[in-house]
């Protein structure tokens, strides 16, 4: 990295959000904001709104009484952490005055300004913030549906699927093959599949050293590719094979009964198959018209307000947010910024603008970390674009101890983020 280091990016992102807390309180009556989504983006927005102005009535709609993070879920699959270590409740938000409403949000009625819940209840809002995450596109690949996910888990939403894949990996026969299918862009957490392959290799190298990993990719290149491939040669020589789209032609069909992943040129048979399907914005976004005729939400990237549905702001994995990747850190930073935008709009003021940051760590093993960071600023077309000369990958050539330090930074980042948001 040239301008902003990975550790500086964490500090700067906190400074940016914290530095805006001096915004004046609402001059008029009690405003209502409903936040949909209990992950990094929604929790960040809800907590920040309460910090900006406690007179704002903030309701957070969550579909469960706890949230398991996708970040660090690969460590659960590799047996290095229990699910409890990545699962958090919402008591911390309730303690600062956020109203927690458990239930599935099915639709946002912008004309009436209400969020409609699955049980028929309606939550009125002056403005809504939506960070609902992704929907898995079952049925896109013949043979892969919700039932198939019990045989070929995706584990791309942390929870029961994470534990299922962990248990299948632990039960894999000696010398078996772990097949992973990765979709084409865009999808949640671009480097996530390759971190997973790395940590599965770390597990296998200790418990099943003659096993193999095959990655059947829906694209030819991937995030942090040179760093991952260098690490695989160093740590897991001969164990991981990456098959790019150009060599396979892409997955055309899967057979859960035989654990086969079929392409035009070759059929890959696994003892364990981790099939990550294509994705789109969560159902509540599509049901509310936020995706228009597409699969992702289009927003004004200066305010996060939908370009289609007024008074509704969308962030995180469900939205296209300029050059920012779909990551937990991105969603968290966007949530904080969006909170300040919404508070300003409720006051009738011009929304603030700032620099947004993202840092994405990946673990090749618990003691070997790599990272990429980005800095994003609005251009004249109101698009969040990467700042030239900023960010970048960690270097290929490093001094002794550097990869261990990056792994430590990854753990620090996770502890800081989850403590700030959920505790």
Summarize the structure.
The protein has helices at residues 6-18, 40-52, 73-77, 91-95, 160-171, 192-207, 225-235, 245-248, 283-287, 328-346, 402-422, and strands at 32-36, 57-62, 66-68, 87-89, 99-102, 105-109, 114-117, 122-124, 127-130, 134-136, 177-182, 212-217, 240-243, 253-255, 260-262, 267-269, 272-275, 279-281, 297-298, 312-314, 319-320, 356-365, 368-378, 384-386, 392-393. With 423 residues, it is α/β, with parallel strands linked by helices.
Describe the structure.
A 5-stranded parallel β-sheet has the order 5-2-1-9-20, with helices on one face. A 4-stranded parallel β-sheet has the order 13-12-11-17. Strands 22, 23, 24 and 25 form a 4-stranded antiparallel β-sheet that branches. 29% of the residues lie in helices and 25% in strands. It contains 11 helices and 25 strands. It is globular, with a radius of gyration of 21 Å. 49% of the residues are buried. Helix 2 runs parallel beside helix 10 (328-346). The chain folds into 3 domains: 1-20 and 352-416, Alpha-Beta Complex (Flavocytochrome C Sulfide Dehydrogenase, Chain A Domain 3), CATH 3.90.760; 29-63 and 103-137 and 278-351, 3-Layer(bba) Sandwich (FAD/NAD(P)-binding domain); 148-275, FAD/NAD(P)-binding domain (3-Layer(bba) Sandwich), CATH 3.50.50.60. Helix 7 links the parallel strand 12 and strand 13 (240-243). It has helices at residues 6-18, 40-52, 73-77, 91-95, 160-171, 192-207, 225-235, 245-248, 283-287, 328-346, 402-422; strands at 32-36, 57-62, 66-68, 87-89, 99-102, 105-109, 114-117, 122-124, 127-130, 134-136, 177-182, 212-217, 240-243, 253-255, 260-262, 267-269, 272-275, 279-281, 297-298, 312-314, 319-320, 356-365, 368-378, 384-386, 392-393. It has 423 residues and is of the alpha/beta class.
């Amino acid at each position: 990295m040239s301008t902003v280091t990975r550790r500086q990016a964490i500090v700067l992102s906190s400074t940016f959000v914290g530095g805006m807390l001096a915004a004046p309180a609402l001059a008029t009556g009690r405003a209502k904001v409903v936040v949909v989504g209990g992950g990094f983006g929604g929790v960040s927005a809800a907590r920040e709104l309460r910090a900006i102005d406690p007179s704002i009535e903030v309701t957070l709609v969550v579909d469960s009484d706890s949230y398991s993070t996708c970040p660090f879920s690969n460590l659960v699959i590799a047996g290095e952490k229990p699910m409890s270590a990545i699962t958090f409740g919402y008591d911390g938000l309730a303690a600062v005055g956020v109203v927690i409403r458990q239930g599935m949000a099915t639709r946002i009625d912008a004309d009436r300004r209400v969020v409609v819940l699955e049980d028929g209840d309606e939550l009125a809002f002056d403005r809504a913030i939506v960070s609902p995450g992704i929907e898995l596109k079952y049925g896109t690949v013949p043979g892969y549906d919700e039932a198939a996910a019990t045989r070929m888990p995706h584990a791309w939403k942390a929870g029961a699927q994470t534990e299922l894949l962990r248990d299948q990996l632990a039960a894999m026969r000696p010398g078996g093959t772990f097949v992973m299918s990765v979709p084409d862009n865009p999808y949640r957490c671009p480097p996530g599949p390759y971190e997973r392959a790395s940590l599965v290799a770390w597990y296998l190298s200790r418990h099943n050293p003659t096993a193999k990993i095959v990655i059947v990719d829906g694209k030819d290149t991937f995030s942090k590719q040179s760093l991952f491939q260098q690490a695989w040669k160093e740590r897991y020589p001969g164990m991981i094979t990456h098959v790019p789209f150009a060599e396979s032609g892409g997955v055309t069909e899967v057979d859960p009964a035989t654990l086969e992943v079929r392409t035009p040129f070759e059929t890959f048979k696994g003892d364990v198959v981790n099939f990550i399907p294509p994705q789109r914005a969560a159902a509540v976004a599509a049901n509310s018209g936020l995706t228009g005729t597409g699969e992702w939400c289009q927003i004004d990237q200066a305010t996060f307000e939908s370009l289609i549905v007024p008074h509704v702001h969308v962030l995180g994995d469900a939205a296209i947010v300029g050059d920012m990747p779909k990551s937990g850190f991105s969603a968290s930073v966007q949530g904080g910024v969006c909170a300040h935008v919404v508070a300003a709009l409720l006051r009738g003021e011009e929304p603030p603008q700032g620099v947004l940051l993202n840092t994405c760590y990946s673990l090749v093993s618990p003691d070997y970390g790599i990272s990429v960071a980005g800095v994003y600023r609005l251009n004249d077309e109101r698009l969040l674009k990467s700042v030239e000369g900023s960010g970048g990958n960690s270097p290929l050539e490093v001094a002794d101890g550097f990869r261990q330090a990056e792994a430590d930074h990854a753990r620090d980042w996770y502890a800081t983020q989850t403590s700030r948001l959920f505790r």
